[in-house]
Each structure stands twice: as C-alpha cells, then as structure tokens.
Design a protein that fits this description.
Spermidine Synthase, Chain: A, domain 2, 88 residues, alpha+beta, five-stranded antiparallel beta sheet
C-alpha cells in the first residue's frame, strides 16, 4: 500500500540521460481546474506549500510562490535587448 493517496499528491518525473533519477512530488489540497484541449492538458491545483500551481501536459509551469521568476524573465529579457526602452 502506498503512503500517499494518488489524488492528494502530484508527481513529475524528469526523463533524460542525466536526469533519470530526478523527480518532484507536491502535496495537493484540491483540484481547481482540469481540461484536455486539442493542444494540451491544462490543470490548476491548490498545493499545501506553493499555492496555486499551473500544470501543462503533466509538467509544472509555475506556482504562486515562484511566479515572480517567470514574470521577471518575461519582462527583463526583452527590455534588456530593446534599443530604446522607456520608463516602464
């Protein structure tokens, strides 16, 4: 018998030549949204430690706790190569 119920834990196992033994498991409080589109499976869940988490095709995209990293890259990388950035 597993120590963790499958509906309360999310696991992502990384595949690749170097990362075969690496994974991530996060405790889930509740599922908020789940839908399969023609392009991808979209899931939004509430986690114990990271707040809401966006999962696309079984891969964690971002969480409330670390979303600032995503948004920093989204904004600062284009601004750093823009020829004439203005006050933003």
């Amino acid at each position: 018998m597993s120590l963790f119920a499958m509906d309360t834990w999310f696991s992502e196992i990384y595949n690749g030549s170097v990362r075969d033994s690496v994974g991530l498991t996060i405790k889930i409080k509740k599922k908020i949204f789940s839908e399969k589109t023609p392009f991808q499976k979209i899931e939004i869940v509430e986690t114990e430690a990271l707040g809401r988490m966006l999962v696309l095709d079984g891969c964690v995209m971002l969480t409330e706790r670390d979303e600032f990293v995503y948004h920093e890259m989204l904004v600062h990388v284009p601004l750093s190569v823009h020829p004439t950035p203005r006050n933003v």
